[in-house]
Amino acid sequence: MSESADDIIERMQRVRRDVSQDVAGIVETAKTLTDWRYHVKHHPWVLLGGAVAVGFLVAPRKKKIPHQDAKELVALLKKHNVSVAAPAAPAKSLVHSLLGMAAPMVMRQVMGVAQHRFGGASGPLGAMFTPRPEQPEHYEEFNIPR
């Protein structure tokens, strides 16, 4: 039952090698778990649902005016003969309406110029505006003659 020193040394070296491999695997797993790009790529719908849930929880809720207080306020206003008129909405001018119609057309032109300017792969934003190249079809995989 007693083991020789060589056997013990060999087992210790094997244990050290296994531990270093295990640590390397744990480090890679930790890098993957903390990489947000990995999660966006592999779980987009879960992250979208989480973002919606967080937005729902963080967004302020509309304050409800108690109905009873509104009735008391109306009664007080009537009692003291105070007339309250709702502020009139400012009328839209012709210039305002024309600007509202022209803004989408201007933005479309700006996006066209930006796409033309930065569309090449040499531009700083080329990757955003260039379409991805189509992958070549491999007919050999499907045994389809050309």
Task: Give a quick rundown of the structure.
This protein is elongated.
Q: Between the first and last Cα atoms, what is the distance in angstroms?
A: 70 Å
Proportion of residues in β-strands: under 5%
* Poorly predicted spans: none
Q: Note the run of SSEs as H and E.
A: HHHHHH
Radius of gyration: 34 Å
Mean pLDDT: 78
Number of strands: 0
Biggest β-sheet description: none
Count of DSSP-assigned helices: 6
Spatial shape:
elongated
* Helix-strand category: mainly alpha
Query: Roughly how much helix do the residues carry, as a percent range?
Result: 55-70%
Can you put this structure into words, describing what you see?
It contains six helices and no strands. Among the domains are: 1-61; 100-130. It has helices spanning 5-34, 36-42, 44-58, 67-79, 94-118, 126-129. Helix content is 64%, strand content 0%. By secondary structure, it is an all-alpha fold. The mean pLDDT is 78.
Pick out its properties.
146 residues; mainly alpha; 6 helices
